[in-house]
Known about the structure:
52% of the residues lie in helices and 5% in strands. It contains eight helices and two strands; from the N terminus they run H-H-H-E-H-H-E-H-H-H. The protein has a two-stranded antiparallel ribbon with strand order 1-2. Mean pLDDT is 78; it is low at 1-10 and 137-143.
Amino acid sequence: MNSMEIFQNxxxxxxxxxxxxxxxxxxxxxxxxxxxxxxGIQIKIPRTVDTPIGRTLSNAIGNEAVKKLCExxxxxxxxxxxxxxxxxxxRKGRIIKLxxxxxxxxLDIARIEGVSERYVRMVRSKYRKAHPNTFSDAxxxxxxPVPTQ
Length: 149
């Protein structure tokens, strides 16, 4: 059973989910697209499409879908749970490489690797403990390697 089947199984005994809210108010296609692109990530729905997160959403799920989300849930935050997660070999190593490159935010890495932002932060934290002075504390949102002199 894939993650979309878990959300769409129609079982009336399961609790109401974020998927249900999005599907009811914006349509199943938009809900499916949101979960396929952003599962495991906390998303704040912008008030307009013309914002950085609005453009990120538009690139992923389409401008019309984002307009509908903005009209329906302006300013609301959703955590889109990761379902059916299974760790693949080398994932932590790839995450660490992306963190060290300094080119990706935790959101970017979570999307690339199909994991939650929380998981990326956990990997970063464990790596930081094992390798002190690897990351700059000045910019924790976008991690960059500390230059050596």
